[in-house]
Specification:
Pfam families: CADH_Y-type_LIR (PF01049), Cadherin (PF00028). This protein is mainly β. Among the domains are: 103 residues, Immunoglobulin-like; 98 residues, Cadherins (Immunoglobulin-like), CATH 2.60.40; 113 residues, Immunoglobulin-like, CATH 2.60.40.60. Strands 18, 20, 23, 24 and 25 form a five-stranded mixed β-sheet that branches. A four-stranded mixed β-sheet has the order 1-7-6-3, with no helix packed on it. The protein is flat and about 165 Å long.
Length: 518
C-alpha cells in the first residue's frame, strides 16, 4: 500500500507521488501499464505511466475540498501490455496495490453564493434605501467572519454603499436613468482574521425608468404661412421626443392650450402617430397687419404619472409664388420697392468707407513735414576733411616763427555756433584775461578761428580745423631742437638718465661727448 498527502488547493494535473511494480523480465516483456481499477477516489485522481522508469504517477484530476472529503482510497493495477500467449496459463500477468490519499486543509478565500449578481432598482429610489444583497462565506472549517466593501475604482461617484456586516447594498446618492441607465460595481469579501484572503464579485445594477420627463418638440421648427394660403392647408408637421423609456413605448398627444382652443387662424390636428399637423383656418394672411403668429401647443404622454409641456410654434407670414414656395418673409421687404435695394445700400456704404480712408491718408501725408537739408549746395559734402600739410624748413628754419612763444600758452576755444540751425539762445561767454607770454600766437590763432567761423564757404559745423601748440605744463619743458639754437653754449643733458628707461635713448643721444661730436 501507498500513502500520499495533497493540499486541497492543488490544481488539476498536480503529481502527488509515484508507485513501482517490479518485473524481472527485460525489454518489451518488462513494460508495465498502470490504471485505477476501483476506489472512492477514481473520479478525483488519475495515474499515468512513466515509460522511462516504468513507474506510475498519481495526479489530481479534479479540485479537492477538505471540507467535503478528507481521505480517498484507490486500488491501482499494474499489468503487462504485451503478454506472451505461450505463457498465459502461468498468469495472470498483473498485480494490485492500495493507495490512500489524505487531503490537507488550506485557508481559502471567501466564496460568494453566485458567480455574479443582477439588481434592478427604480430611478426614484430614495437615498439610504436598500437595493439588494450579496452573500459570501468562508469555506474553511473555521468559518471565519466576513466583511464586505465596494471597490471605489468601479464607483467613483460613490453612488452605492454596502453594510460591511451583512452585504446589503444601499443608495448614497439619487439615481438618474437618463444619465446612466446601468451601473457595474465590484463588491469585495474579506476574512476578518486574515485580510489576505479576499475575493470579489461583479454586481450589475439596472436603473428602471420612471416617467419623470415631459415630452418636447423634436426640433426647432421654422414655420411660415403664405399670404395667399387657403383654409385647411397643411403648413407644418411637428413631432416630439421624451428622455424616458416606457416599457410599452412612447405615445404622445398634441392639442392647443385651453386659451387658444378655438384659434381663429390655425388649428392642430393629432395624427395619432406621435405627430401633429398645423392647419390654416382662413383664407389669406397679410404681412402688413400681422407678420408673426405665436401658436402654443400642449404635448403630453400616456405614462404614469402623466407628464406634459407647452411648446410655442412661431409662424411667419411670407410672400410666396403660385406654387407655394417662400420668397420673402421680412416685413421690411414691403418698403424696399419704394426705396433703395439692399445691394444699393451696401454700395453706398462701401463708397463712404473708401472716401473716409482717402481723407485720412491725405491728412496724414499733409501733416508730414519735409525736413530742410543741412547742405543746400550740391557741391558741399557733409563729411569734408580739411588738411593742412605745409612742410616746414626743418630745425634750421628759425625765421618762420619764434618757437619760444609756444612754450607757455594757455588757450580756451570760443563757443562755436551751428551754422545749419538758428540758435535759440545766445549765451554770453565770460572771457578771462589771457596768460600767454607772447600775444602774437594768441592773435594768430584767434584770427584763423574767426576766419573759419565767418567764412560762408567753410566746411559744416562737424568739420575740424586744429591749431595746436605746446603747453607749459610739461615738466620736461620743450624738447624741440629748434629751441637749442636760441641758447648759447652747450647744455647739460645728464638729468635725462634719471628719468627712467623711457628717456634712455635721449640720454644716450645728448648726454655724452660722443653724441655731441656725432
Amino acid at each position: 500500500s501507498y500513502q500520499f498527502n495533497s493540499p486541497e488547493s492543488a490544481p488539476p494535473g498536480t503529481p502527488l507521488g509515484r508507485i513501482k511494480a517490479n518485473d524481472p523480465d527485460v525489454g518489451e516483456n518488462a513494460e508495465i501499464e498502470y490504471s485505477i481499477s476501483s476506489g472512492d477516489g477514481s473520479d478525483m485522481f488519475d495515474i499515468i505511466t512513466d515509460k522511462d522508469t516504468q513507474e506510475g504517477i498519481i495526479t489530481v484530476k479534479k479540485h479537492l475540498d477538505f471540507e467535503n472529503k478528507v481521505l480517498y482510497s484507490l486500488r491501482v493495477e499494474a499489468t503487462n501490455p504485451h503478454p506472451d500467449p505461450r505463457f498465459l496459463q502461468l498468469g495472470p500477468f498483473k498485480d494490485t496495490a492500495v493507495v490512500k490519499i489524505s487531503v490537507e486543509d488550506v485557508d481559502e478565500p471567501p466564496v460568494f453564493s453566485r458567480p455574479w449578481y443582477l439588481i434592478e432598482v427604480d430611478e426614484d429610489a430614495k437615498e439610504g434605501s436598500i437595493i439588494g444583497q450579496v452573500v459570501a462565506q468562508d469555506p474553511d472549517v473555521a468559518k471565519n467572519a466576513i466583511k464586505y466593501s465596494v471597490d471605489r475604482h468601479t464607483d467613483l461617484d460613490r453612488i452605492f454603499n454596502i453594510y460591511s456586516g451583512n452585504g446589503s447594498l444601499f443608495l448614497s446618492k439619487p439615481l438618474d436613468r437618463e444619465e446612466t441607465p446601468w451601473h457595474n460595481i465590484t463588491v469585495i469579501a474579506t476574512e476578518i482574521n486574515n485580510p489576505k484572503q479576499s475575493s470579489q464579485i461583479p454586481v450589475f445594477i439596472r436603473i428602471l425608468d420612471i416617467n419623470d420627463h415631459a415630452p418636447e418638440f423634436a426640433n426647432y421648427y421654422e414655420t411660415f404661412v403664405c399670404e395667399n394660403a387657403k383654409a385647411g392647408q397643411l403648413i407644418q408637421t411637428v413631432s416630439a421626443i421624451d428622455k424616458d423609456q416606457p416599457p410599452r413605448g412612447h405615445r404622445f398627444f398634441f392639442e392647443l392650450v385651453p386659451e387658444f382652443a378655438v384659434h381663429p387662424n390655425f388649428s392642430v390636428v393629432d395624427n395619432k402617430d406621435n405627430t401633429a399637423g398645423i392647419m390654416t383656418r382662413r383664407n389669406g394672411y397679410s404681412r402688413s397687419k400681422m407678420s408673426t403668429y405665436l401658436l402654443p401647443i400642449i404635448i403630453f404622454d400616456n405614462d404614469y404619472p402623466i407628464q406634459s409641456s407647452t411648446g410655442t410654434l412661431t409662424i411667419r407670414v411670407c410672400a410666396c409664388d403660385s406654387r407655394g414656395n417662400m420668397q420673402s418673409c421680412s416685413a421690411e421687404a414691403l418698403l424696399l420697392p419704394a426705396g433703395l435695394s439692399t445691394g444699393a445700400l451696401v454700395a453706398i456704404l462701401l463708397c463712404i468707407i473708401i472716401l473716409l480712408v482717402l481723407v485720412v491718408l491725405f491728412t496724414a501725408l499733409k501733416r508730414q513735414r519735409k525736413k530742410e537739408p543741412l547742405i543746400i549746395s550740391k557741391d558741399d559734402v557733409r563729411d569734408n576733411i580739411v588738411t593742412y600739410n605745409d612742410e616746414g624748413g626743418g630745425e634750421e628754419d628759425t625765421q618762420a616763427f619764434d618757437i619760444g612763444t609756444l612754450r607757455n600758452p594757455e588757450a580756451r576755444e570760443e563757443s562755436k555756433m551751428r551754422r545749419d540751425v538758428i540758435p535759440e539762445t545766445i549765451f554770453q561767454i565770460r572771457r578771462t584775461a589771457p596768460l600767454w607770454e607772447n600775444i602774437d600766437v594768441q592773435d594768430f590763432i584767434h584770427r584763423r578761428l574767426k576766419e573759419n567761423d565767418l567764412d560762408p564757404a567753410a566746411p559744416p559745423y562737424d568739420s575740424l580745423a586744429t591749431y595746436a601748440y605746446e603747453g607749459n605744463d610739461s615738466i620736461a619743458n620743450s624738447l624741440s631742437s629748434l629751441e637749442s639754437l636760441t641758447t648759447e653754449g652747450n647744455q647739460d643733458y645728464d638729468y635725462l638718465s634719471d628719468w627712467g628707461p623711457r628717456f634712455k635713448k635721449l640720454a644716450d643721444m645728448y648726454g655724452g661727448e660722443d653724441s655731441d661730436r656725432d
